[in-house]
Amino acid sequence: MKSIISTDKAPSAIGTYSQAVKVKNTVYLSGQIPLVPETMEVVSDDFAEQAEQVFKNLSAVCEAAGGSINDMVKVNIFMTDLSNFATVNEVMARYFEQPYPARAAIQVSRLPKDVAIEIDGVLELPSVT
């Protein structure tokens, strides 16, 4: 049985999808782009600021699901320019503790709202005993 995760602390869906879907202890997070939840506008044209906003948005969805960003086991990072790889690592290091999740970083030609970064992933909630 699946349950839908939703929070107003992250941008609302801009299409036919949910912010996240939970099945047992696994949460599948939809891609987050650098929208400010209150305005639904892109935070900035600056890549570092966009990356920071995406991780804030992911954190909010993880918390709404009952976990934290450090419970993510897989992260997929989509960027329009892989030369921003080092910046992503710097920003990601502020949000994750070791051991880090598995990760892919992929260059794509375009993302929604012409942003420079989108991240999705999988969260494994801690078992409740």
Describe what is shown at a glance:
It comes from Litorilituus lipolyticus. Belongs to the RutC family. The protein is of the alpha+beta class and 129 residues long.
Major sheet strand order? 1-2-3-8-6-7
Tell me the count of domains. 1
Strand content: 25-35%
- CATH homologous superfamily classification: RutC-like
Q: What ranges have pLDDT less than 50 throughout 5 or more consecutive residues?
A: none
Give the overall shape.
Answer: globular
Number of strands: 8
The value of Rg in angstroms is 14 Å
Mean pLDDT equals 96
The top level CATH class name = Alpha Beta
Question: Percent of residues in helical segments?
Answer: 10-25%
Number of helices: 2
Q: Tell me which CATH architecture applies here.
A: 2-Layer Sandwich
Distance between the termini: 20 Å
Q: H/E order of the elements?
A: EEEEEHEHEE
Main sheet specs: 6 strands, mixed
**Structural class by sheet pairing and helices:** alpha+beta
CATH topology: 60s Ribosomal Protein L30, Chain: A
GO cellular component, one term: cytosol
Protein name: RidA family protein
Organism: Litorilituus lipolyticus
Family: Belongs to the RutC family.
Can you give a write-up of this model?
This protein is an alpha+beta fold. The chain has one domain: RutC-like (60s Ribosomal Protein L30, Chain: A). The protein has helices at 47-64, 85-95; strands at residues 2-5, 20-23, 26-32, 35-36, 41-42, 72-79, 102-107, 117-124.
